[in-house]
User: Fold these one by one.
Assistant:
Number 1:
Amino acid sequence: MNLLIRAAVGALIGAAVGFAMYRYVGCKTGACPITASPYTSVLIYGLLGAFVAAGK
């Protein structure tokens, strides 16, 4: 599979996991910087998914 496609699929899966973390585990008080905002959570987990899938 092409490296770019693998990274894109990994980013989509990571973003879905990030949104699930925000939705079901997230911090209600806002003290947790990663899971306090859905945008931050999706972005960080999406990047992690892309890096893991690309093998970097």
Note: Helices lie at 3-25, 38-54.
Number 2:
Amino acid sequence: MAAPKFNENETRGCSAHKTRTALRTHRSSPQLNATKTSSIMGQGCLKVTKYFLFLFNLIFFLCGGVIMGFGLWLLLDNQSFIIVLSNSTAVKAACYILIGVGAFSMLMGFLGCLGAIYEIRCLLGLYFSCLLLILLAQVAAGALIFFQKDVLNEEMSKIVSKVLDDYPGSNSSTEQAWDFIQRNMECCGWTGRQDWSGNLVIINSSQLLFPCSCQNVSLASGNFSDSGFCEAQTPDWPVYDVGCAASVESWLVTNIGVVLGVCLGVALIELLGMVLSICMCKNIHTEEYTKVPKYQ
């Protein structure tokens, strides 16, 4: 059987086709290598961002639990000092806000962890938007407190004055809490001893009474109590002259570094979460793009 014969033109065409294919492959090899290298680097960056974002959101989730627990403690614990302000709707509203913020933070932390682990871009975008809203709300609240501090101080003075006027002298939870404040801060009333002049028990008593928790230890003689009402020998009460508002302000001034540090730390953590979520969304998009086959 005779072998097939190829003419010279077919042989030359086949050889030229092989040469062009080899040259094309050789030329495209650097591009393919660069694409593979970029893909590997993108995968590594995506993994690092993923685990950092997961850890961040885990911490965020735990912080939300602490905030919610603190709000519940203020609202439900009758032994806490905040009970002296329990008649104020503003204070109760603040407790509910703390509980809501804590629960919302826990939900955000959960969604952030879920979006990071499963690389869900819509959850990461929602997470970024919520963090941005929270950061803006915190800035607005800080500005409101700074510019309206006189109004807030006046409102607090009204709340405490009502508490002092209704101070029962019957060892109730409200009385114990206010006694704790005056005794430990060594103060009397909110602005001074004159805040007790409207107390119904003192006004209606035939004796000279004053709150025992206000008593200045250095002026006390004999046995004295640290709760309820004590009898004074003279109209000049042996009590502290400074009001509790000044003591609270002094405490805030002393610890202003800690307060500002906590606020700044929270803001930086939120900014870090926003940056990580944006980086991960971008890396997920790049990774999906590099997986699309490219034809030459």
Note: The two ends are 43 Å apart (CA to CA).
